[in-house]
Amino acid sequence: QNYHRELDIRTGISKVTYNIGSTHFSREYFVSNPDQLLIIHLKSHGVDSWNFDIQQYSQLRYSTDYQEVVN
User: Fold this and answer.
1) Beta bridge partners of 4
2) What distance in Å separates the CA atoms of residue 16 and residue 34, rounded to the nearest whole number?
3) Contact 5, 15 (CB under 8 A)
4) How many whole angstroms separate alpha carbon 16 and alpha carbon 71?
5) Among 50, 27, 31, 51, residue whose Cα is nearest residue 39
6) 38, β-bridge pairs
């Protein structure tokens, strides 16, 4: 419910927000081709918030970084 998508052409940030029950979810994406960079910002607030692990495997050279924000 309350599903909303937007794309800010000026910043290149794509956003998706929605609610499932009393929990609010949001995702933001930013991609930079010159920097070979993908940033994904996931947020959730409520009883059924996200809790997961992410793994990445590739034969290409890459680096992965993350920040955990706990409110």
Assistant:
1) 17
2) 24
3) yes
4) 21
5) 31
6) 31
pLDDT at position 71:
62
Amino acid letter at 43? K
Distance in angstroms between the alpha carbons of the first and the last residue of the chain: 24
Enter the tokens of residue 5: 């998508």
* Full strand arrangement of the beta sheet holding 37-45: 4-8, 13-20, 23-32, 37-45
Cα(62)–Cα(71) distance, rounded to whole angstroms?
Answer: 30
Residue whose pair of structure tokens reads 């993908």 in the numeric block: 38
Residue 62, SS3?
A: coil
How does pLDDT run across 13-56, given as a tens digit for each residue? 999 999 999 999 999 999 988 888 888 899 999 888 877 777 77
Q: Which amino acid is at 34?
A: P
